[in-house]
Amino acid sequence: MTYQDAYIVAARRSALGRVGGLHGRRRIEDLAGPIVRAVLGDCKINPAIVDAIILGNATEASNPARLVALASGLPETAAALTIDRQCASGLDAIVTACRTIGAGEAEVMIAGGAEALSTAPWRVAKPKHLHQLPRFLGLEPVTADPAGEPIQFEASERLASEGSISRAEQDGMALRSHLAALAARDARRFIGEIVPLRNSPDEARDEMVRDLTLEDIAGDVPYLGTGGTLTPSNTSAQADGTAVVTVVSKRVWLDLGEPRALRLIAATSVGVAPDREAMAAVAATQRLAGLHNELDLKTLAAIETSETSAAQLIAFARHFGIDPNGINTDGGAIARGAPFAAAGAVLVVRLFSKLVRGLKATEGMAPAKGLATLSAIGGLGSAALFEAV
Questions:
Q1: What is the pLDDT of residues 44-90, one digit of tens each?
Q2: Domain segments of the chain: what residues?
Q3: CA–CA separation, 277 and 153 (whole Å)
Q4: β-pairing, 108-115 with 239-249?
Q5: Cα–Cα dist 192/284, whole Å
Q6: pTM of the model
Q7: Is 354 left (phi over 0), alpha (psi -120 to 50) or beta?
Q8: Domain 6-120+238-388: homologous superfamily in CATH
C-alpha cells in the first residue's frame, strides 16, 4: 500500500476559560460545534463531504465525537470516534486522522480535542454495600491520592528536586509565559486562531492570562507545603476549551488550489513510569528524534508544549540543550490553562498559526518545521513533527 500525504488546511480553537468561567454553562457540543463549522468555513469545504470526525475527550460519557458531529452539521454518514489518552488525546486524534487519510481510507476529516469541564458529568464511585455513601471521583488517575494533590504535581516536584530547578527559576518562567501571552494578544497574533462564540471581547481572549509581576507570583503558597516549589502561578490550571483542524487528502488539497497547510512528518507516543510523568514529553521527543534521523530541535521554527509546570518546561529545554524562551513563544499552558484532552490539539493550532498564518513561504528556503509534544496523566508522552507546505 502506498502512503499518501495528508494536509491540515484549517485550524481553529476557542478561547480557553477557567472552569466555571467563560464557558461555564456550555455543553461540549455548544463549545465544539462552532469551532468545527469555522474550520470547514475557512477552507470552504462542504460539511456534506466530511468522512469522519475524531475527537479527543477525557471527561464526557458515551461517544461525544458523535454528539459534536451532529451538532456541527456534519452528515449522518460521517463516522465519529472519541480518543482518550488524557492530555495527549487531541494530538493523537489529529495524528490518527492524518494516518487514516494517508492510508487512503478517507479524504476529508475533522480532528482535535474538546473539554467542557464545567458541564461534564460527575463521576461517582459505586458503594461496596448499601450502608456506604457514594464517593465523588476526581479527574486524576487512580494512582493519585484522592485526598491530596494531583500526581502530576508530585512528579514535577520530584523533577524540580532532581534537576535542582529552583522556585525562583520556575516563577521567572511562569512570568515569561504570561507576559508572552499578553504580548501576543496585544500584537493580535491570535486573530484568525480563536473563534469568538458570541460577540464579546472576552470570547476572543484566553481567560486566565494575567498581567502579573514577579512579586505576585512569589507570594503564592506551594501546593505541597514547606519545601515545595510548585504553586498556582507556576503550574497550569484546568480549563474549558476546544481545538480542531480540517485534514484532507492530496487530491482534495489540489482541488482547493494547494493552500498553505501543515503536513505531518512523523509522530510517536511512549509510556514512562507514572511517577515520572513529568518527563514523558522528553521520552516521546527522544523517540521521535530517533525515528526521524536524529532530529535537532535547535533547527525547528517552532516548539509547542502543554506544560503542567514551569519545572517541566525548564527540564525539557535543559535535556535537549535549547533555550526555554524559544518554547511556547506566545505563552504556554501556565498562562492560558490546560483543557485536558484538547491540550494537544491546541498545540497543533498554535503551530498552524505560526507556520502557516504567520510565516510566508520564500522560494529556495526549506519548509518551516514545528514540534508539538506533551506529557499526559498516567505517564504517557506524545510528540509530532509537522512542516508547512
A1: 999 999 999 999 999 998 899 999 999 999 999 999 999 999 999 99
A2: 6-120+238-388
A3: 10
A4: antiparallel
A5: 30
A6: 0.93
A7: alpha
A8: Thiolase/Chalcone synthase (3.40.47.10)
